[in-house]
Amino acid sequence: MTAGSLHEGQASERGVVLHGTGGTWTVRTTAGDTHEATLRGRLKQEGKGMKLAVGDDVVLQADPRGAQWSITEIVPRRSVLARREPGGRVGERVVAANVDQVVVVFAAANPEPHPRMIDRFLVIAEANDLAAVLVINKVDLTPDLDLAARWADYTAAGYPVHFTSTKTGAGLAALLSTLTGRTSALTGPSGAGKSSLLNTLYPGLNLRVGVTSEAVNKGRHTTVGALLHPLPDGGYVVDTPGLREVGIWGLASADLDRCFPEFRPCLGHCRFKDCTHSVEPGCALRAAIAAGAVSRARFESYRKLYDEL
Question: Quick one: fold of 253-308?
Answer without folding.
Answer: Ribonucleotide Reductase Protein R1; domain 1 (1.10.40)
